[in-house]
Every structure is written in C-alpha cells, then in structure tokens.
Design a protein that fits this description.
single chain; OB fold (Dihydrolipoamide Acetyltransferase, E2P); de novo design (two linked rop proteins); 7 helices; globular
C-alpha cells in the first residue's frame, strides 16, 4: 500500500554507506521508521530533509510485516529556522521530539497530538510564548492524548505522590490553562521560581510514572535546568 502523509522527523541516523533510517511521527500512521536509500549520495538533498525537526511530506510503500518502510518521495512542507537560532528553544524542542519518540507506539496514530506538536514547534519558531510555557503545553498534551490527562485534584498513585500542583502562587492556574489545550490562549500569569519548579516537577513525574524509559533521555538534565531558570 502506498502511504502519503505529513511527518515530523524525530531522529535519524546513517545506515550503510549512503542510506539513512529516520524515525518519524506521521499524521496518518503514528510513529514510523523509514529507510531512505541514497540519502548521502552526492546529488541527493534527502539527508538534509530528514534532520530532526523537519516537517515534510512523504510517500512510502507500507508493508505491515516490515519494520522499515521504504521511502519513495519527500518534499519540505514547512521550515522553522528560527528555532535553531535560539539555544533555549532548540534544546527544548529537541527534548520534545525525544519524549515523543519514547512514548509513542509504532503505527498507533494520534492525529490530534501530531497537530499539537506542529503547532508547538511553529510557536517556538515564532516566539509566540515563553519557551517554558510551550514545553509544558506539549507535556500536558502528550499526557492527555496518550490517555493520562492530569487531574489536578489527584496526587496519589500506587508508589507515587505527585507534587501539589497548587503549591505555587500561580502554578495551579497555569497548569489548568495549559490543560485546556488552546495554543492561541496560553497563560500569561507571572511564573515565579516556585511555579517553575512545581510545574516542571509535576509534569515530569507524571510522564515518568506512566511511560517507561524516559529517564534515559540524557537531555532532560539540561532541560530541567533551563526550565528552572528565568
């Protein structure tokens, strides 16, 4: 079957002399793995097209019995170059890709979450809001779309007591606003150092509780420092 779908590249790595393998979040098929033959040949632009953060349209031949699907065609859909000009934004954006790759199951479509990721990365590119707010916004959406929407009144889980989300001056209001999932109406409340710590700890603890392997994301040590800073 031929599949034509927009994707966001989550990660990619070289395969053999001239090919690459890309892990992508697709709108129609969820997380997929593509083999891009000849990507590193001299006249091919495909190695650049399959860098993390690339938002592209792909056509590939889908065989359910095969783990790697063979790319047929690719075109850029939209570019977000300004993300790469801001160290804070690029670090947080790349961490979102890593979290997405670790939490999604292969070929389990989540078109709503896909659109949230597109909107979040676009907002990073446009400096639409504070990068911390955008990062937390996507963490909330990730939990919600994968079946674990936070209930701010529930802190107790087997083996875990979450940080009180209302312990900061504005942390509860900010989290409630983020959970409404409206990127055009992001919270504008003051975010105090206490709020930053509480929101960051609450969401990261929730994600680690529900998804195995997130502690292996090495960049999160840097990300958590960024989220705690002004």
């Amino acid at each position: 079957m031929i599949i034509h779908t927009p994707v966001i590249v989550l990660k990619s790595f070289r395969y053999g002399d001239s090919s690459l393998i890309a892990r992508c979040f697709s709108e129609d098929k969820g997380k997929i793995s593509l083999i891009v033959k000849g990507a590193y040949s001299k006249k091919s632009p495909k190695s650049a097209q399959f860098q993390p953060l690339s938002y592209i349209d792909v056509i590939y031949y889908n065989k359910p019995s095969r783990e790697l699907q063979v790319l047929s065609k690719v075109n850029f859909r939209e570019s977000w170059p300004k993300i790469l000009d801001n160290l804070r934004s690029v670090t947080l954006s790349m961490a979102l890709l890593e979290m997405t790759e670790k939490t999604l199951i292969d070929e389990d479509p989540h078109p709503g979450l896909f659109q949230v990721l597109v909107n979040t990365l676009r907002a990073f590119n446009e400096s639409k809001a504070d990068p911390n707010i955008l990062f937390w916004f996507y963490e909330c959406a990730l939990l919600t779309h994968l079946g674990f929407q936070p209930n701010l009144d529930k802190r107790e889980f087997p083996g875990l007591t979450l940080t009180d989300p209302n312990a900061g001056p504005n942390s509860g209001l900010i989290l409630a606003s983020l959970l409404a999932e409206d990127i055009d109406d992001l919270p504008t409340d003051e975010v105090t150092p206490t709020d930053r710590k509480i929101i960051g700890d609450y969401l990261w603890s929730s994600l680690r509780y529900h998804f195995d392997g997130l502690e292996k994301i090495k960049s999160m040590n840097v990300v958590r420092k960024i989220l705690a800073d002004n």
